[in-house]
Write a structure and sequence with these properties.
By secondary structure, this protein is α+β, with helices and mostly antiparallel strands. It has a single domain (2-120), classed as Aminopeptidase. The protein contains four helices and seven strands; from the N terminus they run βααβββαβαββ. The longest helix is centred in the middle third of the chain and has 15 residues, at 102-116.
């Protein structure tokens, strides 16, 4: 498996793959929450300056992606204060590629990049309904930071904050 920076011409493919990977959660949330999530995963936030958008490639096929936002960047459009460490966002692995270590490989590359830049922590946010993602993050050493949680659609669904020491 190769983890690399995304090529500009792959952006549309990555966003469509991301949307497809997240569709399994559509029935777990309200229509308003799903619309807010779709807007977030399809936005141009992943091409802000200094955001590193990475893909996992297996046998020449893109099998997942992730965005690494730098510290002190508004990754959530004002919903969370700017943090002192990088933030992982938009991890997406299609169902057909799950179970092969793709998500872990993408996360490990983010850990390495953040540590190389001198950070002692890396963070992320995930929906309380994304139970598989929560299990993965906790198994990799992420700890909850509820003071940075937020509720994007005012529907009781919390986007949970996590942080991991590097």
């Amino acid at each position: 498996m190769i983890i690399r920076d995304v090529k500009k011409e792959e952006l549309s493919f990555i966003r469509n793959q991301r949307k497809s990977a997240y569709e399994e959660h559509e029935d777990a949330v309200s229509k308003e929450h799903w619309e807010a999530l779709q807007k977030s995963i399809l936005s141009d936030a992943d091409i802000q300056p200094h955001v590193e958008l990475l893909v996992a490639e297996l046998d020449g096929i893109i099998v997942g992606s992730i965005a690494l936002f730098p510290a002190k960047v508004d990754a959530y459009e004002g919903k969370v204060e700017e943090l002192e460490y990088p933030e992982i966002r938009l991890l997406a692995v299609p169902k057909s590629s799950r179970g092969h270590g793709v998500a872990t490989a993408l996360l490990n590359e983010c850990f390495l990049r953040a540590k190389t830049k001198g950070y002692g922590y890396i963070g992320l946010h995930t929906g309380s309904f994304m139970l598989g993602a929560i299990r993965l993050y906790e198994s990799l050493g992420f700890n909850r930071l509820p003071q940075y949680d937020f509720e994007p659609a005012n529907d009781g669904i919390i986007v949970r904050a996590y942080r991991r020491a590097l």
